[in-house]
């Protein structure tokens, strides 16, 4: 079937492309690494120029035509403000300061944030507001990934409260127009106490080093580590889980199962966020064991997240894909670069180990593009699904060109591009105009709950804010065009 689409859509010299494609499909790679190299070595891989320029930024009326001038003005103003380093610095300082303990000051700050950054980057405070935002996006051809923006939990009561929030989010999706909500987002650290995630990660790492270690609580899962995974977080034999910890693990697992079941019932896939490497092994363990239970009948319900900034990302992705293939499980993967840059490097340095993050940004770009290429090939070959979450225009364009070339259709294959709500509008609309499914990742919830999350994002993605340069430039161009039109 892929070949049929390919034959009708490809604009590259057909014989050359079919040869490459057949070779890719038929190459019996001897190892996961060989499979990856084979995919990346294709002339249509994501390291060269796209053969078909499908994402176009030249026509600003086609990009922003669905936004009113007021919406455009507001978006441009907020992006300009967010790009001013001292404004972001002051915001982070104030939110973390004791000033926030003074009721009046707190109200004033949250009030002004609500009408600026919150309004720009968040979907709303309650069900009604979120529904309105989702419908507005749906009307302009974008979908929504709903993220009830919770921070990590320390105790069982908070985990239960958070579970309730996730379940209500899934329930609310049922009353939205079909297809308008593409995914529901969850963080494992919001439903399992953080300390327990650290303990479980330690034990999983120790078992990887010492395969004879028995972990009686462990369910069947997909590979969590590769030979290149750093294990420096666990330098000595961790003690086994206590009966209380085992009980807490079991309850946390049940919470995740409830979320998965609700997602399956609503037929809305669940995207589980990746966090920092100290707890990520436990998050992958939870995610992949849930995927084994819920990803059935060519329908991946549970999506895990791979962070391409990690040096071992590619190797782990290959192992997990191969294992899922062998077990006939449709795999769901969200690919991101990663948002914990500074804390990862700091932790590794403090323990005397090299950072787990690629030494250069170019290595990260190349890893992201290589993994995206590999995942797109996998989407064609199997019933797996992929979310390419990025604001990077080059990565977006390259992936779009490859997806187009290998015939990944809008409905037949599970490919979703995704950007944060309020970020990279030009890329989102450009991809939409090129015929792809595009989602906005939308945090929502009360202002005071969401703001720490947004500020953490701003802090971690300081460089990312400058990616709004393109948006600001194109928005200015579109506003000038509209003014000129009015004066004619
Ligand atoms: C829909 C969506 C979901 C997301 N979910 C997650 C998630 O679950 N977990 C998570 O961790 N993040 C998540 N993110 C955040 C994502 O990781 C950030 O968007 C990312 O940090 C920016 O990458 P980009 O692809 O947008 O590319 P760009 O805009 O090109 O960003 C590049 C950034 O990468 C960073 N970087 C990476 N490697 C290096 C290096 N070696 N040297 C220097 N800088 C480097 C820098 O901060 C730089 O600013 C998500 C993002 C989106 C859009």
Automatic annotation (TrEMBL):
Belongs to the proline oxidase family. This is Proline dehydrogenase. Its EC number is 1.5.5.2. InterPro entries: FAD-linked_oxidoreductase-like, Proline_DH_dom, Proline_oxidase. Its cofactor is FAD. Residues 131-467 form the Proline dehydrogenase domain. It comes from Cucurbita maxima (Pumpkin). GO terms for cellular component: mitochondrion. One of its GO terms (biological process) is L-proline catabolic process to L-glutamate. Keywords: FAD, Flavoprotein, Oxidoreductase, Proline metabolism. It catalyses: L-proline + a quinone = (S)-1-pyrroline-5-carboxylate + a quinol + H(+).
